[in-house]
Amino acid sequence: MRGKLGLRAIYFLALSVVSLAAMAVFVVFDVETQRRDTEASIVEEARTFAREMDAVWKFMETSQDTINYTSDGTYEFKGLHCAIVGKSIGAIFSANNDYSIRYTNLNPRRVHDRPDEFETAALNAFHEDRSVIEYYDTVVEDDVPQFRYVRALEVDESCLECHGEPVGEIDITGHDKEGWTIGSVGGAISISIPAERASSSLLNNVLRDVAFFAFLILAIGAVVYVVTARFVLRPVGLIKMASSVEAGGYPRQVASSSRAREMAQLISQFNAMARELSALYAGLEEKVADRTRDLQQVNLALERQRDQLEALGQRLAEESQFKTDMLSMVSHELRTPLTAILATTHLSLGSCGEGSESWHAWDEVRKSSLVLLDMVNNLLDIARLDAGRESLACEPIDLGDLVAAAQEDAWPLAENAHLVFSAQVAADVPLVYGDYDKTHRALENLVTNAIKFTPDGGSVRMSASVEAETGDVLVQVEDTGIGVALEDQDRIFDRFVQVDCASTRRFKGSGLGLALVREYALLQGFTVEVSSHPGVGSTFTLRVPACLAVALDEEDGESRPGQEVG
Q1: Helices and strands (DSSP H and E) totals, the chain
Q2: What is the pLDDT of residues 515-542, one digit of tens each?
Q3: Cβ atoms within 10 A of the Cβ of 105, count?
Q4: Sequence-separated (6 or more) residues with CB below 8 Å from residue 557
Q5: Minimal CA–CA distance to 493: which of 540, 434, 430?
Q6: Would you tell me the crossing angle of helices 196-228 and 7-62 to the nearest 10 degrees?
Q7: How many domains, the chain?
Q8: What is the pTM of this model?
Q9: Is there a single domain that holds both residue 327 and residue 466?
């Protein structure tokens, strides 16, 4: 298989990557460890020098009486005080080598005791924070790395004789006193140690450790590679046999020559597989022939079932078309006599005195005829939708006109039902794209539905507005009717559905009005929603997305004022 690496190459690459990663981690760790150890060592060396100089200082402090008093008890100051001795020993120690020990102060009595930049930073740190007693770092001076160590000198009782109060008084050495107090910082001892040897030692240690680690990695890698090649890669007979089987050859068993238990198990399992394949190959042709005959029989059965399904589908399509045609024909035939009945009813109502027994009878005929006509119209719409004969117009429509038209159609129904009906269109409602007739039918059904399910003395309100958050145009029909339970609010938009059988008998109707509202809304890209509480009322909302609103420039830059309809 071309383009793929062998196991030896994979092992070599894996070992190389792991070794390099381990080497990098070790180098970083070793350098940091050696640096910390070297720094700790050189800091301890500087502290040792400082302790030794402290010992000299203490010795001179305790020996002042011996030095300054003669054998007969006369005081004779020899000028060999602690500071002179300490500085002199530091100068002697620093002569002819790279080490330096000196005493310094921010306000020294001698010019050559003035602090340099590093010592000034240390003294400032001691004065700012009394808990800091030492200050050290490695700096480069004249292109040579130097380890600088500065330790604070705290004023004690013996220092006050020459440096205490009052300020300006001449001490025994002939200098003005500085006014130091016990516990304050009187100066610092500054030690400079060459860091080049320490850096060289650090580098040598790191190189030695890296060389040893590299040798160890190479040795471990070599052992792993040899063991892998001997016990894993060497038994290539298994690979050759597997390749021959893949090429279509007859499966043969492999002799087990590996000492590794896992490889021996693998070869044993391969031989078992080879035996099973040999047994399968023996009767393979006969099995293939049997399976071929079975498949042919299954295919024939599937062909027969497909033909039956096609015939059944054709018959169902014909029956559905017959049902649709019959429903449309019956509905058309019903509209003609219903129209005649309504015309006759209107004439009869006009000829009878209002409130008489005949007038009430003809009014009942009129109401029932209107219900039947609404049912027939809904059935015709459903039939056209099922037959796919509904055409959709997309033109700018004025929702204010539609609200007014729906109100005009619903006004007589609301008056007969003794309801308060109102309608309002907000000033900022734009024209929208849609089908005028279908939107009118949807709004008509929503209003008719609200009037039908609102008891006498209730109210129905129709409004059109723009939702501030989304920009959608909302046409809402609110009523104070019987309401719809939450679990029934989805299915009331299904065909031939009312909330329950009792409401069907009481309020009449086919259950198609809300189904038509939803289908007409979906055809135009609108949505219809309901919010309702049983016994309180319902709010049906026809939502027109903001993307279907006509832009202002398309309306010739004119906006229409708000209308109070009716």
Answers
A1: 14, 12
A2: 888 888 888 899 999 998 898 899 999 9
A3: 20
A4: none
A5: 540
A6: 150
A7: 3
A8: 0.40
A9: no
